[in-house]
Amino acid sequence: MEQITFLHLSDTHLSFETPCPAICSAPSLLESAYRAAAGLDTPPQFVLITGDVVHEGGADDYAKARSLIDRLDAAYGVRTYILLGNHDRHAAFYEGYLGEAGRTGRYYYSCMAGGLRLLALDSAVDDQVPGHMDVAQLDWLEQQLSLKTDAPTIVALHHPPCGTSVRQTNANNLGEGARFADILRRHPAAAVLAGHKHFVTATALPGGTPVYTGAGLAFGIELPCGGTLRFTKSGRMQYCTFYDGQLFYSPLDLGEAPTIAQLTPAQMRNYHGK
After folding, report:
1. Under 8 Å CB-to-CB from 163, ≥6 apart: which residues?
2. What sign does the CA torsion over 38, 42, 45, 48 have?
3. In this predicted model, what pLDDT tens digit does every residue of 227-270 receive, in sequence order?
4. pLDDT (tens digit per residue) in 89-99
5. What stretch of H or E contains 118?
6. Left if phi > 0, otherwise alpha if psi is -120 to 50, otherwise beta: which for 148?
7. How many CB atoms lie within 10 A of CB 123?
8. 269: exposed, middle or buried (C-beta count within 10 Å: 0-12, 13-18, 19+)?
9. Residue 193 in contact with residue 210, Cβ under 8 Å?
10. Which of 119, 144, 222, 246 could form a disulfide with 230 if both were Cys (CB 3.0 to 4.6 A apart)?
C-alpha cells in the first residue's frame, strides 16, 4: 500500500462572531491550518475533524461552517470528514450543516477516506461534557469491525475511550470505555483518534490498538504546573501518515518558531547533532 496522509484537527470551536472569543477559532484560523498542511512536501489527502466543530452555535453557524469547509476543500484539494463533540448540537448540525431539519438521533458512519476505512462515531450528548454511546452504536461498531476488508481501519470519536495524561479529567472521557476497549481487543484497528482534551496523549488499548488524542485547534491546555491547567492560544493540529501497516502521528503548531538549522531527510539520517 502506498503512503496515505491526512490532517487530524479537533476542537475547532468555530465562531463567526466579531471579535472572535478567545476560546474559539475564527474562520481565518481554520484556513491557516489547511494552508499550512497543504504547504508540506506531502500534503494531506483528507482532513478529519474529531468534534466540537462549532462552539455551541445554532443552525446558521453550522451553515457557515459547511460553506467555509466546502471552500477550503475546493481550494486545497482535500475532503473533510467531521464528527460531533460535546460543544456541538445535534439538531442545529443536522439542519445547518446537512440541510436535514427535523432529523434526530446520533451521527455516525463508515466511509473510505484516502485508502483507509473510517469509522466515525458519535460520543456527544447535548449539554453534557462526558461522552456516551448507546448499545446500538456500540453494536454497530462491532459489526463494522467484524467485516472483512483489505483497507486499514481508523476509528474516530470525540471523547477518549481510555485514560489520558491528566488522570484527574478522565471522568469526562467515554463512559462506555470498557466495552469499547473489549470490542477493539477482539477486532483491532490501525488506530483510534480522539480529541476533547486539547493536549496530545498517545497510548494503546488492551490488545494493542493505538489511541491518539489530538490537541485542540481553538486553544491548547498545558499539563498541570503549580496545580493549574494553563489554557493557551496555540493553534495545534496533527499530521498523520500511514504506511507499512502503521499510523505515524506528528503534532504541528501553527505558531512561528525561530529556525536554527535546515536539513533534508537524507541529511538527518547521518546527523549527529554537531
Report:
1. 170, 173, 203
2. negative
3. 888 888 878 999 999 999 999 999 999 876 556 467 576 776 66
4. 999 999 999 99
5. strand 116-120
6. beta
7. 29
8. exposed
9. no
10. 222
